[in-house]
From TrEMBL:
GO terms for biological process: 2-oxoglutarate metabolic process. Keywords: Disulfide bond, FAD, Flavoprotein, NAD, Nucleotide-binding, Oxidoreductase, Redox-active center. This is FAD-dependent pyridine nucleotide-disulfide oxidoreductase. Residues 8-328 form the FAD/NAD(P)-binding domain.
Length: 487
């Protein structure tokens, strides 16, 4: 018989979304709650993810706008080459994120309504967790342990001082030269930042960039990105050598047997993420994981063990902070709040991810929501794709003089429901939001075109893509409601 030191209504493992989105509302609703966190409060997003990366990327974008080509376009000359004080920026980033994390932890420590265990948790039974020398029990347990960098089995790599995003976001000094491995979100965002602040980077991409993106956007991203960053695309990595402080990565280009290599001072490995579920000792519970170690959950975030839930990255569905947040909000509405009222969980409406958006904060920037063109083709849904280029708008063209950028909007041919939208170009992570609102409400083309768009804001591009979809519907002889024809 296991001795139980303390019992709770709600316990979350992981102080990212688990803390802010579940444990905090739980104790605010009067439930007995505990948080277990082995590292810093705030999880990946605050300490080594979204926040520090954007704190580096934004100044990089300011600097990129000062590149001679950009300035000449707007008839500006700069007498001296702009430089970035990396040490000052690094210090600002580190102090800000560490301060926010420390404050969050301090406020939890000072709060008598919640217990904090600063250890690595592991299960010792379905509702039992070992936290240091104590065993605690939770009626409801939320696994919110996120993901960690995944390292490929590449001969010669293990034991070398390569960087992952964790180290890149804490760099004390910029390397002069660097090799990046990977073509996903992390590789493209952080390599963009490093290249812009002056690191001579070569990026090695196995097959394609940002593979989950709508194909057309992916192609334009590749065209623009590879003009900005030196990339080798389409290859098989062979091995890594670390000698005299230098990394050499050997690879064969696709279709060739000949081994080639690239050498640099630093190596950045950005080849995906993996869930840290092995240490959780899930074998002592009924919680099952899939082949990659992600916790299996249903559409109510229930694991295969009653009363145990998984949210965020570890559930392997959507690996975004805004997704983890929504998972937490859903659990509070459907399980935590009813529990605080002495009621059973409400498993009536599954979580709705159909309007899950994303953005890639690289150069170029991309954003999307809903179905891709290839999804609609595969699903046999009749649609038209309304498209517009940035330069075909007053702001994107005449004012900003954009040489790239697209907005594409996918509309159901019969119902005119907006099914997806994909963008590439300046500020598209902001522009996408009007379409998120429409898709979220299963809105139609007339909902977009009926809105008055501010002239000549960049958002007119979204409307113009909608107009293009309308014209395509009309060209196919599809009868349109009167209010659509002149918008
Ligand atoms: C470089 C980078 C940039 C990113 N940029 C963005 C972005 O711009 N926008 C976006 O939406 N997403 C971004 N992401 C992804 C985002 O960070 C994650 O989707 C999000 O943080 C997941 O939240 P989570 O709560 O599921 O897990 P996490 O935030 O990872 O939190 C999990 C916590 O659990 C703790 N933990 C793990 N195992 C245990 C254990 N056994 N016991 C106790 N504690 C444990 C960890 O220490 C961690 O603090 C980025 C990620 C990276 C790496
Ligand atoms: N802006 C954002 O929202 C944002 C930013 C960063 C990260 N994230 C999240 O973090 C997750 C992880 O990002 P990521 O970039 O690590 O993963 P990813 O899955 O986006 O990209 C991984 C890349 O590594 C490559 N790769 C994998 N194994 C390889 C191997 N053995 N050899 C060569 N290349 C290999 C893949 O082909 C791919 O290009 C993303 O899925 C995303 O959801 C989001």
């Amino acid at each position: 018989m296991v001795h139980i030191d303390k019992e709770y209504d709600v316990i979350a493992i992981g102080a990212g979304a688990g803390m802010v989105k579940v444990v905090r509302p739980a104790f605010q609703l009067g439930l007995k709650a505990a948080i277990i966190e082995k590292g810093r409060f705030g999880g990946t997003c605050l300490n080594r993810g979204c926040i520090p990366s954007k704190m580096y990327i934004h100044p990089s974008s300011v600097l990129r706008h000062m590149l001679p080509d950009e300035l000449e376009k707007h008839f500006i000359t700069l007498k001296e080459k702009p430089t970035i004080d990396f040490e000052a920026l690094r210090s600002y980033v580190t102090t800000t994120i560490d301060g926010t994390s420390d404050n969050a932890e301090r406020s939890i420590k000072a709060n008598p309504k919640v217990d904090e265990y600063q250890v690595e948790a592991k299960f010792v039974g379905d509702h039992l967790l070992q936290v240091g020398d104590k065993v605690i029990k939770g009626k409801m347990i939320i696994i919110a342990v996120g993901t960690v960098p995944q390292i490929p089995k590449l001969p010669g790599l293990e034991g070398t001082p390569y960087y992952t995003s964790n180290e890149i976001l804490r760099l004390e000094k910029l390397p002069k030269t660097m090799i990046t491995i990977g073509g996903g979100y992390i590789a493209c965002e952080l390599t963009y930042f490093l290249k812009t602040v002056g690191v001579d980077v070569t990026q090695l991409v196995r097959s394609v960039f940002i593979r989950a993106e709508d194909e057309e956007i992916q192609q334009e991203f590749t065209d623009v990105y590879t003009k900005y960053v030196n990339c080798k695309v389409g290859l098989t990595l062979k091995r890594v050598e670390h000698k005299d402080g230098m990394f050499t990565v050997y690879y064969t280009p696709t279709g060739s047997e000949e081994e080639v290599s690239v050498t640099a001072e630093a190596l950045f490995v950005a080849t995906g993420v993996t869930p840290p579920t092995k240490v959780l000792n899930l074998e002592s519970t009924g919680v099952e994981v899939d082949q990659r170690g992600f916790v299996k959950t249903d559409e109510f975030m229930r694991t295969t063990a009653p009363g145990i839930y998984a949210i965020g990255d570890v559930a392997g569905k959507w690996l975004f902070r805004h997704a983890a947040n929504r998972d937490g909000e859903y659990l509070v509405e459907h399980v935590v709040y009813p529990m605080s009222q002495g009621q059973e969980p409400k498993f009536d409406t599954p979580i709705d991810y159909h309007a899950m958006p994303h953005a890639i904060f690289s150069f170029p920037e991309c954003a999307g929501v809903g179905k891709r063109e290839s999804d609609l083709v595969k699903e046999g849904i009749p649609f038209v794709a309304g498209k517009v280029k940035y330069h075909n708008s007053a702001m994107g063209g005449e004012a900003m003089r954009s040489d790239h950028g697209t907005v594409k909007i996918l509309v159901h041919k019969e119902t005119r429901e907006i099914l997806g939208c994909h963008m590439l170009g300046e500020e598209c992570s902001i522009m996408i939001h009007e379409v998120i609102a429409i898709i979220n409400r299963h809105g139609k083309l007339e909902d977009l075109l009926g809105m008055i768009h501010i002239h000549p804001a960049l958002s007119e591009l979204v409307r113009n893509a909608g107009r293009n979809a309308r014209d395509k519907l009309a060209a196919e002889g599809i009868e349109l409601p009167l209010n659509l024809r002149w918008c």
